[in-house]
Amino acid sequence: MELPAWVRRGAVPRARSRARCSLLALVALAAVSCGGGTGEPAVTVGAGDTAESAVLAEIYAGALSRGGIAAVVAPAPGDRAARLDALDSGAVDLLADHTGALTRFFDATALSANAPGDTPAPGAPPAGGTPAPGGDRPAPGAPSAPGGDAPVPGDDSPGSGAPPATDAGAPKNPVDPARNATAALARSLPQGLVISDPADGTDLRPRLLVTTETARRDNLAESTAAACAGRTGGLAPAPGLLDPAPPETLPNCTFVTTERFADPAALRAALLEGRIQAGILAGPVPADATAGLTALADAETLLAENVVPIFRDGVIDDRGRERLNQVAGELTTEELTALVQRAEAGENPADLARSWLDAHAL
Predict the structure, then answer these.
(1) Angle of the 51-66 helix axis to the 318-330 helix axis, nearest 10
(2) In this prediction, what percent of the chain has a pLDDT beyond 90?
(3) Is the CATH number 3.40.190.10 carried by domain 5-204+304-359?
(4) What is the CATH number of domain 207-296?
(5) Collapsing DSSP states into helix, strand and coil, what is residue 260?
(6) Burial degree of 354 (CB within 10 A; 0-12, 13-18, 19+)
(7) pLDDT category of residue 101 using cuts at 50, 70 and 90
């Protein structure tokens, strides 16, 4: 896949004039009217094709507008490269994304541990060198992004990373994958793009699932290798997420054979019926599909996929960043998963966002 030239250059060109309020922006579920009475152009928050992107765009736009900063939601369709190209072109000012996925997009060698599907191609240089071509990675010859010593958003707070596992909840992590992934992203950002605090309470990483009975019987604890070796595995998407497709495998995980399933419920049924012995789900397990399952992960090989806003430098002032950081401090995996499910079922993302902002007094 050919990536935008600005990614290959490792820098964002001079921002084009910000889009003024238009009929398109109003149709696209505008959060406030143009200018909001301040005389400043509205911040345009991009909403991609997925339910997660639409819900987060409405949450960010709503949080900004409630803080007195004019904001609208506009479409930003396509894959990650297309969405980031819209950010570069000035079609949108801000996007929601995931820390690990963004880092792999900008620099495939930046992470100290590779997430699923992101193993550098054969012959790729060590971390800090030219990224390997292919997939969502920058093309050969892209310079290393500046700012290796750039401060990490939220670095003055402890950050809990992923919470301890409860059956099929987020896997336990003795290290802080959230801070590791955020630091890697801060180092890999092209000049001219910035992030605010990631939502450390969100953990959108793929889940390796086994039945709770299997985990106890085989004393699997958090070992992905033991859970996969010699077993038949299943793969299922996480509908509505930014990256809904499941990875073919996970680090330290090799199945004898694999079978694909349509959704988390089908994967759960196959596990409980014994048709497969382990399964990989592309994201968090929905609340209605957790019973009888346990999620496993090796903290050293799966860094965080936290929700994070990315925007052009100079677009969001300190007041706006504070509003975005307040959202980051409140958003959780369970809440976001539920919002995505409801949007997938046909509820209006703008209504869902308003209810969430009201519930958190934002």
Answers:
(1) 130
(2) 56
(3) yes
(4) 3.40.190
(5) strand
(6) middle
(7) very high
